[in-house]
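Service request form, structural biology core

Requester: graduate student, group of Dr. S.
Request type: structure prediction, single chain
Budget code: on file
Notes: please return the result as structure tokens.

Sequence provided:
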Amino acid sequence: MNRDLALLRQLQEVDDRIRELSDEVRRLPKYVAEIEAKLLSHKQQLAAEKQTLVDNQKSRRQMEGEISVHEQKISKLRDQMNQARTNEQLHAFQHEIQFETQEVRRHEDRILDKMEEAEALDRNVKTAEEALTIEEQKVAREVAETKARVAEDEQALVKVKGQRGELMATVSPDALRLYEHVRKGHGGKAVAAALADRCQACNVVFRPQFSYLVRRNENIMTCESCGLILYYDPPGAGVEDPAGDAGVVSG
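Core staff response, request fulfilled:
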């Protein structure tokens, strides 16, 4: 295989690895932010449920206080009723006592409703607290693992970028210029395999003469359709060592 072609193939593999590592280094912190935001949302939801339970208890205390006020009124009205001198006064006191008694019962019914609500809230809070504890442990573990992975990726990036510099130094200037030009115009992709008389990047079938030249791997050729640099990779063949000294030729 043409020496520069073999080197460009390796350079593409190195660039693919750099892109993969760089994408992961950018993506992992976003993932951490997402799971931490989700955890915070669950904490806020639990805090809201706890506040609802506190409000429930406060409401019950207020209603118990109101019951006490109504009961005191009933006691006073009964004392006054015992001193009534006419039937009209007696009926009036009885009517007021009946009203205050109804208010007591109304508040008692509301307190019972609030107690049932509080039981459900308390169960929900306990369940949410248990779930939150598990989630906090999981998030802490994932954050630690993710930060370790980012550190590993950053170290690997330094190493791979060093390999890229070494490869670039061994490629001929013309071949390197072509590689960088094609790579810039194709989102980081510059080299593609040719198999079964077609480009594996765009799937276009080659002309017979062009296919023959590509299969020889003696010159650097670009796909007549997509413009990527081509190398022929016969089935079962491995990556060849850089060899040969053919020139740069574009299809």
